[in-house]
Specification:
With 614 residues, this protein is mainly β. The protein is built from eight helices and 39 strands. It binds heme C (HEC).
């Protein structure tokens, strides 16, 4: 009897557990459909705005909950109850809370204390510093510093792999100075590693994710080296390179959705900080008073973090512009964010940036433009707009629900996501930038940005065309295409080389094949990197291509979309590659793999170092 009762009891428990589970799963699916799918599912040939379900499935419930509670989805999840957020987190990850063990960095992954002792006072020897590796943002490493040539690039072999704990996206452009590698990531960890072995000198946690690149420079009378960077909570930091101690922290914008995505650029005791925002993707809620954010550029004193000047891309503050059908107050003008690291022109004493679109009406003449600012005063010297009337926000994805919030569903959305390149072409300076329509532009810095030529590298789209950046070796400009459509493999991806003077395409190579690949997306979102003779491009499915700058032929190729054994014992895999490109210093190629943001298909958390065989 007793036995039978026990059996009955456990069967009831099993049935109860099953019914709770399926109930929760159903709820999760319904919650997702109602509140999240609009931006997290592809529709009508368009890529999803945020990561798709298959990508979210690879995250932990803890991470997804944190994204809703403290991260980028706060406003989307604000009206969901705590229980709903838990259910969503378990449903989307496909895992229960506590099932994935936390992965701290074990003590053994830290460098021996002796290595950390010497204080650093100057940048010595070969380095890659900041986003573009030089003030002109050409993303070129000279052959001596690179230590890699077209002849030996084919001998590159994996040297070490490092895993970012808890992360689903790899990090910023790795920066290598004095034998140390500095890198941040989207969960807000910043690391100083030994570039040779990958051991950890220090790790700090900052408020927001770090997306672009760290710049190393000195402050104070003794020239102490400091790491400068910005985060997704719109803070700029100065951190001691020896200890990771925060020397100062300055918030650069009061808008709650303001972010720093483009890398702050260091020059002559000042840090030039580009400001963008996520307000554009918050506009799904019909009660959202769209929109008030304006892009801006700041000059900050590196000694103390004080703001020397701040110039908005839109001179006037947003004003009330009427009400939506549901009575929500709307605002404008807004938008024109800066997503890219500014480019410094010492000859003309100017800074150049590219801007994105307006979020609300009225349209301004500073959207989708190259803007030149005076270095010392921040005054705008000239604006070259390439596409007018580009007013778009994410409510355009939910047409019919609240059309007033979307001024123009067909707006071109042709942001300049990447930094302009200033190149000396036979003694004449020319500025190059690419946009999401897949167009490369040459601008004349001596003639207020007058367009010298335009060349198409292929099809563009909201998430297509040229995303994070061009590279140039002073002979050609190289561009990768992020256009992707499974029904148009011939238009997908590809890398092009364009003559700097004529604007003619010298060569172009198609996307890598999808044959035999389970997860395939061979388009190019990441910034390119060049060394004399070789250009490096990364794919959204984790492949590294090293191409000959002479004819685009493949010199080396490597697939990072797999698991790696890491020097810090954190479980890690490679995957989609976007945003930062490769970093090359002293015969070693450093690259992040794994990405869970826009258009990514394989999240991951690995930093890889490849070395040539001498
Ligand atoms: C208005 C569009 C929109 C809606 C609605 C939306 N999201 Fe998102 N979501 C995005 C975008 C865009 C991103 C990518 C943000 C980025 O890369 O910074 C994102 C990213 C995410 C991420 C990954 C963030 C990371 O850093 O790893 C998670 C998790 C997520 N969303 C969950 C949700 C959930 C849960 C809901 C529903 C309650 C939701 N989202 C509703 C647009 C949306």
């Amino acid at each position: 009897m007793k036995h039978q009762a026990g059996l009955l009891w456990s069967m009831t428990v099993i049935i109860l557990v099953i019914s709770i589970e399926t109930h929760a799963q159903q709820d999760g699916a319904a919650l997702f459909e109602t509140y999240c799918a609009i931006c997290h599912e592809a529709s009508g040939g368009d890529q999803a705005l945020g990561p798709e379900l298959s990508v979210l499935r690879q995250m932990t419930p803890e991470h997804i909950l944190d994204v809703m509670d403290n991260g980028v989805m706060q406003s989307q999840a604000r009206e969901r109850t705590r229980t709903q957020r838990y259910i969503l987190a378990e449903y989307l990850s496909g895992k229960s809370f506590g099932s994935v063990p936390p992965e701290p960095i074990p003590q053994a992954a830290y460098c021996d204390s002796g290595d950390m002792a010497q204080s650093q006072q100057a940048v010595l020897g070969a380095a890659w510093n900041g986003w573009g590796n030089n003030l002109q943002n050409t993303r070129l490493q000279d052959s001596v510093s690179a230590g890699i040539t077209p002849e030996n690039v084919g001998t590159l072999k994996l040297k070490w792999a490092f895993g970012y704990p808890r992360a689903t996206s790899g990090g910023t452009q790795p920066v290598v100075v004095n034998g140390r590698l500095y890198v941040g990531n989207a969960v807000g960890d910043v690391f100083a590693l030994d570039a040779d072995t990958g051991c950890v000198h220090w790790r700090i946690e900052v408020e927001g994710g770090v997306r672009s690149a760290i710049s190393i420079g000195s402050i104070g009378d003794n020239g102490k080296l400091i790491a400068f960077f910005g985060d997704q909570a719109a803070n700029t930091y100065a951190v001691d390179v020896d200890t990771g101690e925060v020397i100062w922290k300055t918030r650069v914008d009061d808008h709650p959705r303001a972010v720093i995505t483009g890398a702050p650029v260091l020059y002559d005791g000042r840090l030039f900080v580009p400001v963008s925002s996520r307000e554009e993707s918050q506009v799904r809620n019909p009660g959202y008073p769209c929109c008030q954010f304006r892009g801006s550029l700041l000059s900050i004193d590196t000694e103390n973090g004080e703001v020397l000047w701040k110039t908005y891309t839109i001179s006037e503050e947003a004003k009330p512009i009427g009400k939506s059908d549901t009575g929500t107050q709307l605002w404008g003008p807004s938008g024109d964010p800066i997503w890219n690291a500014p480019t410094v022109d010492l000859k003309r004493n100017l800074l150049y940036v590219g801007t994105g679109n307006n979020y609300s009406i009225p349209a301004t003449n500073t959207s989708d433009a190259i803007i030149a600012f005076d270095i010392d005063t921040g005054e705008i010297r000239w604006v070259k707009q390439v596409a007018a009337d580009d007013v778009w926000n994410s409510s355009c994805r939910a047409m019919g629900e609240n059309p007033y919030l979307c001024p123009d569903v067909d707006a071109p959305d042709t942001d300049f996501g990447n930094s302009p390149l200033l190149v000396d072409v036979n003694g004449r300076d020319i500025l190059y930038a690419g946009n999401k329509l897949g167009l490369v532009y040459a601008f004349d810095p001596d003639d207020e940005g007058n367009i010298l030529w335009t060349e198409s590298i292929g099809k563009g789209a909201t998430s297509g065309g040229i995303m994070w950046g061009l590279a140039s070796d002073g002979e050609k400009v190289y561009a990768g295409n992020n256009y992707f459509n499974t029904s148009e493999p011939e238009s997908t991806g590809g890398v092009s080389a364009i003559d700097l003077v004529s604007g003619n395409t010298v060569w172009s190579v198609p996307a890598l094949s999808c044959d035999g690949r389970d997860k395939c997306k061979p388009s190019h979102a990441s910034a390119l990197t060049a060394i004399p003779g070789v250009v490096f491009a990364l794919t959204m499915d984790g492949r590294i291509r090293a191409l000959s700058t002479a004819d685009g032929s493949t010199l080396w190729e490597y697939d990072t979309a797999r698991d790696f054994e890491t020097v810090n014992s954190v479980k890690a895999n490679g995957g989609s590659m976007s945003n930062a490109g490769v970093t090359i210093v002293d015969g070693v190629v450093y690259v992040n793999s794994g990405y869970s943001h826009h258009g990514a298909i394989i999240p991951g958390n690995v930093l890889l170092a490849f070395e040539i065989q001498r």
